[in-house]
Amino acid sequence: MTQTTFHSGHHRRLDVLAGAWETTLIALQPDGSTGGVSFASDVYTWMPNGHFLVHEVDAMMDGQRVRSTEIIGVDVESGGFFSRSYDADGGTSDFTSRLDGGRYTIRGQSQRFDG
Predict the structure, then answer these.
(1) Which range, 28-32, 58-62, 76-80, has the best average confidence (pLDDT)?
(2) Which of 40, 37, 34 has its CA nearest to residue 56?
(3) DSSP at 7
C-alpha cells in the first residue's frame, strides 16, 4: 500500500523502505573477517492507517531458507524505530533501528545490520 499521508515526519522517513528489495548480505565473523554470503527478498508494505510498516523476508542463509515477518513502528521521542520479528519456526526477536540519510542500521540482541 502506498502512503500519501504520514502521522509524523518520522513515519515519512520510514517510507523510503516501502517496496520490494533484493538484498545481498555478507556476514561478519566475531573477529571482523567476512563470512558467508546470503540472499533475501524483502517486501515492505504499510499497514492500513499507516502506523506500522510490515517487512516480509524470504532468504537463503547458510543453505537454509529463512522466512519471517517484522512489524516496524516509530519511536517519535528518539527519532528511531522499533520492531519485532516473527520467524517461521515460532521465534521472535526485538530490534531498534535508525535511518540516517541513506544508511539504515538495525540492532538486536544477537543480530545487526548496517547498510
Answers:
(1) 58-62
(2) 40
(3) S
Helix ranges, 1-115 (H): 9-14
Supply the DSSP symbol for 52: -
CB < 8 Å & 24+ apart, contacts of 33-38: 36/61, 36/62, 38/62
Q: 33: exposed, middle or buried (C-beta count within 10 Å: 0-12, 13-18, 19+)?
A: exposed
Strand order in the sheet with 112-114: 19-28, 34-46, 53-61, 64-75, 80-87, 92-100, 103-108, 112-114
Q: What is the pTM of this model?
A: 0.85
**What is residue 8's predicted lDDT score, i.e. its pLDDT?**
76
